[in-house]
């Protein structure tokens, strides 16, 4: 079969993937499992750009899995991304339906290289992660990567959303916190049903705004690496207040919503 110039260029710049799984995590968030057909290098905390079939656009999605094959959460080497904000009549909902068709027909997806400079650094410092909403997918990759380190470091995850239902992997994080004494999980919701409680003494559950809870509870020290993902405004606000609180942290705060360290 003849290979066109377009196909040849595509093969050189992209990696073919098979969609091997789809799962609703809550009413508006879909997990896509992608299996690369050749080695696909990436670092925990990076993202890939997914072509959306309906809108003919591309969107960046954080990779929720960690790169090592020696995984704590799964045995396969597939890559997970989490698509949030899938409203019933939105273009994303149409895209999800088309992805399902591709899945059933085993049609390949062609994705470019992983990107992003806010990837996990193994520095030996304690790790703090602040995630708003579906920014959790970024946090998830870093949590599992940090837990895999041969020498344990303290890891604290602050995950904020409107309701408990929006913390779509809450139970998984609770289980991890109970399993790993050096992993601390702080869940923050704007609306907490009366009488709702969280099992497991390693977990804190707060009602309020994510950053308010973070700054009220977290002692910011120089020997910490901080990773932030969420709405652009939230990341900017968090960074400014963190640096005001402790200027030594300026070069240890990572987010792709921030300019490069040497330009801050």
From TrEMBL:
<dbReference type="GO" id="GO:0016491">
    <property type="term" value="F:oxidoreductase activity"/>
</dbReference>
<dbReference type="InterPro" id="IPR017927">
    <property type="entry name" value="FAD-bd_FR_type"/>
</dbReference>
<dbReference type="InterPro" id="IPR001433">
    <property type="entry name" value="OxRdtase_FAD/NAD-bd"/>
</dbReference>
<keyword id="KW-0285">Flavoprotein</keyword>
<keyword id="KW-0560">Oxidoreductase</keyword>
<protein>
    <recommendedName>
        <fullName>FAD-binding FR-type domain-containing protein</fullName>
    </recommendedName>
</protein>
<keyword id="KW-0455">Luminescence</keyword>
<comment type="similarity">
    <text>Belongs to the Fre/LuxG FAD/NAD(P) flavoprotein oxidoreductase family.</text>
</comment>
<dbReference type="InterPro" id="IPR039261">
    <property type="entry name" value="FNR_nucleotide-bd"/>
</dbReference>
<dbReference type="InterPro" id="IPR050415">
    <property type="entry name" value="MRET"/>
</dbReference>
<dbReference type="Pfam" id="PF00175">
    <property type="entry name" value="NAD_binding_1"/>
</dbReference>
<dbReference type="InterPro" id="IPR017938">
    <property type="entry name" value="Riboflavin_synthase-like_b-brl"/>
</dbReference>
<feature type="domain" description="FAD-binding FR-type">
    <location>
        <begin position="12"/>
        <end position="139"/>
    </location>
</feature>
<keyword id="KW-0274">FAD</keyword>
<dbReference type="GO" id="GO:0008218">
    <property type="term" value="P:bioluminescence"/>
</dbReference>
